[in-house]
Fold:
Amino acid sequence: MATVSRVVNNNPNVKPATRKKVYEAIERLGYRPNAVARGLASKKTTTVGVVIPDISNAIFAEVARGIEDIANMYHYNIILCNADKKKDKEIRVINTLLEKQVDGLLFMGGAVTDEHLQAFKTANVPIVLCATSDDHNQIPSVDINHEEAAYDAVMKLTSQGHKRIAMISGTLQDPSNGYARFQGYKRALEASGIPYDDTLVRIGNYRYESGAEAMKYFIELDERPTAVFSATDEMAIGAIHCIQDSGLQVPGDISVISVDNSRMASMVRPQLTAVAQPMYDIGAVSMRLLTKLMKKENVEHAKVVLPHEIVIRQSVGGI
Structure:
């Protein structure tokens, strides 16, 4: 047993002839090391749990890719769990991953509630919030400044002469895609001397259909907006197609801008002007921060805010 262990773990203190015999036996028997037993012995499973809000969303897929690449670099495996941005499911998934003895946890989700914090406190492994954060800054996190991203997007519209600017928002219970971006929208209007009008805000569910539905409402107003800020690309694309289906033009009649800059932004026509979140980097930096915490290395900044930028395309015009 000791000799097999040395061969499997690449210990150099094994004679070549013996190593050859062991590898032949491994191949003949189809042997694989028992990772569970190894984890029990070492108190480490070299696995990381990742809670993702919507595995079908391209934005989160990009984050997951960044996580996976860095995990591979540091020889960790990931267990990816979809939670649908539902609190009960998120709590259940967190507890399931902790029961599986993961060495660390990356959480992507909506609001970090007291129930989330309680689940995190009972964990004896490091946790990093990825593309989200908690209001009390108790948990290490990696994200952008969502309020500033929204502010910059709306200021881009006001710089083009737009004054009647609508917003398709995410749920205001969502601290990043919803509430923070809504606050950025309102702050940009105030900075530009434009009164806030609640008839120009509709709440979507991040999906294409809700963007189209919100845009239909705006078009039917007595005085329709000249520009729309969408909290996400997918809702923005729904809005663009609704505008076009109504016989109007983007940006000739209505300009559209969003936050995300997913691959879809360059696939729609006209191509979508968007504030780019560095989603791959958010995933990669989150995983790197988690590896430092798991290895008890020194961490200077437990709250990391990555930069964003506006990618100019064809969906925004002046008036």
The first strand starts at residue 47 and ends at 52. The CA atoms of residues 126 and 296 lie 9 Å apart. The first helix runs from residue 2 to 8.
